[in-house]
Amino acid sequence: MADASIAESGGWIPPMKATIGKLPTGDDWAFELKWDGMRIEALCRPAGNERSAGAGLVLRSRSGRDVTSSFPELAPLADALGASAIFDGEVVVFEGDRPSFGLLQHRMHVEAPTQQLVADYPVVYVVFDLLELDGQSLLPLPYRTRRALLDDFLDDGPTWRVPPVVEGDGQPLLTLAESRGLEGVVAKRLSSRYTPGTRTADWLKVKVRRSQEFVVVGWLPGQGALEGWIGSLLLAVWDEGRLRFAGAVGSGLAARDRAQLAPLLHPSDTCPFDEIPTLEKRPTWIEPTVVAEVEYGSWPADGLLRHPVYIGLRPDHDPTQVVRELPP
Question: Which CATH class name applies to 211-321?
Fold first, then answer.
């Protein structure tokens, strides 16, 4: 990384990504709950700090898009610090004591939320990594050191928090996640450095619920009142430079979801697959630019999704990077 501070230049660090895996064992692992939210990098430049060129808070999604205006309740974070910093974390909306991706959908697509919307669906920024502090890059440091610096530097605030981390045995945390209906845990190798933009086996997603992102490539019309309207979405993932059909999802699609999807599904004249899949109705193919998160019961290696359920849109994901998440 260059000597110049990312915080001073207003730049962006592409997030490090985890791979799907089994719960690891050994002394070189730490475990965090997996938060069902939107990955956000926060660039904080507090007022009055001599190293801060242009004080304030800048929030960027995992694709680098500026989403600062979408979450105005996080603005006080920058002024709560005594030095410039860059955090990695997730924005979540809680339903009771657990995050709800469904409730977060009300905020993810709104660039300038009203006060009422903020009050109805308040977000919390869950911070799990510290990438730069007072102009000094922390990327080469091991996770153990970055995490210790984060715990010392940032206290919980009105709209942000630093969740606990468990070292050693991750099974109790995974059991807790399962009992509370959470998504799972993330295992992080204590000696791992932060490698921007990479998907690494030094971070492992251990999921209780089977879910992942899919590219929406078309839709099938519904029946009855939904005739001619969106009945189900056709899903795909990228595989060696080509889109691979993964099946269709209709369960979980509410009227609000269909209304939200309709203006985003731009028709295409061509099928995105080399071989047209066998479908019950004539599909409307679309440009592969929309990403949706879907839960499913199982997904055979050579087959289609079984018992899929639509969860919501993922505008924070690059559709060209959506691949099947497989254990190593």
Answer: mainly beta
